[in-house]
Design brief:
two-stranded antiparallel sheet, globular, Cytochrome Bc1 Complex, Chain D, domain 2
Length: 320
């Protein structure tokens, strides 16, 4: 399965459904994240399980519910495309494409997919007309009453830390048998205990890295950049609009039914009812739009053709 299966340029370089697409016959268990500005992340994936884009590419391509690839098979497929053979030889100096260099090539491309010219960037660089009056009111709320800046700060509007903010389970995921099979598979792959494997019904998040019970339900603070194009939101895609996200925070980390995290004991003390009025919510939403510039769309490339490695004559000679 190719990268664009889950990171579609026309869908925010992500996937516009609650859960990412999986390898045929599987269902993924988390929301697909955009690769726009991923070059600036010190760690990737919702629980920060890899430390570079190269490792992310390898993990996704080989993951059983994502690319489901095997190194030798992927290298063989690259070797069957003469254009790739020529380009890999020119860039990496190898006779045949090596899979490790494929990760380097993918990562090099991803590092070109950045956006640094949003209305907020222009405003901070001195163009005071870049934000509307409504957005300026929203900015004041973001930095003050709403408290968003406590976690969404810095150049990427994220502190790159991990929190349990009260996100409720996704009902569809809990009721989808195939999704639960995927989840059990991932539980074992991430070193879950037998008890946890049999009893857990929810994503334990950062816990899979630390094995600390106080990290259950924690996920990385996502960047707010490019969020206009990357719905749905949260690690499980439970909210389809930014309006729903703002309402969730305004209630103190609960959905409209009063549901919250399956791990309330780990819920961050930063999450509390905000008391925002309808007008204030509109102002805040207007400011959130300032984190996104023009949508980044690229012309799909014309993919090179496959070709046999050897001619019939060469194969006949080899059999003699």
């Amino acid at each position: 399965t190719g990268c664009s299966t889950c990171h579609e340029p026309s869908q925010g370089w992500a996937w516009a459904e609650d859960f990412s697409r999986g390898y045929p016959g599987t269902v993924h268990w988390r929301n697909s994240q955009t690769i726009i500005n991923a070059a600036y992340y010190p760690r990737n994936f919702w629980a920060g399980s890899v430390s570079s884009l190269e490792k992310q590419a390898r993990s996704a391509a080989r993951g059983g519910v994502a690319g489901n690839g095997e190194n030798d098979i992927m290298e063989a497929r690259l070797a069957l495309i003469p254009e790739y053979v020529r380009r890999f030889r020119k860039v990496f100096g190898t006779e045949w494409p090596l899979i490790r260099d494929a990760w380097r090539a993918i990562s090099a491309y991803e590092r070109t997919l950045v956006q640094r010219d949003t209305p907020l960037d222009k405003y901070l660089l001195g163009d005071k007309s870049a934000l509307t009056e409504q957005q300026l009111r929203g900015k004041a709320l973001f930095e003050g009453k709403a408290g968003c800046i406590q976690c969404h700060n810095g150049a990427m509007a994220t502190d790159f830390s991990y929190y349990n903010i009260g996100v409720p389970p996704n009902k569809r995921w809990e009721e989808d048998g195939l999704a639960q099979i995927t989840f059990r598979f991932e539980q074992y792959a991430k070193g879950q205990t037998e008890e946890g494997y049999r009893s857990a019904k929810s994503d334990w998040g950062f816990y899979y890295r630390t094995k600390n019970k106080w990290d259950r339900g924690k996920f990385r603070t996502p960047s707010l950049r490019y969020t206009m194009y990357t719905a749905p939101y949260m690690h499980n895609g439970v909210f389809y609009t930014l309006e729903e996200v703002v309402d969730f925070y305004n209630r103190g980390g609960m959905d409209e039914e009063g549901r919250t995290t399956p791990f309330p004991e780990n819920k961050s003390k930063l999450i509390r009812p905000l008391g925002l009025t309808d007008e204030e919510k509109e102002d805040l939403l207007a400011f959130l739009e300032a984190f996104s510039g023009e949508e980044i769309i690229v012309e799909p490339p014309e993919l090179p053709e496959y070709a046999p490695l050897f001619t019939k004559q060469e194969l006949m000679e080899a059999r003699k």
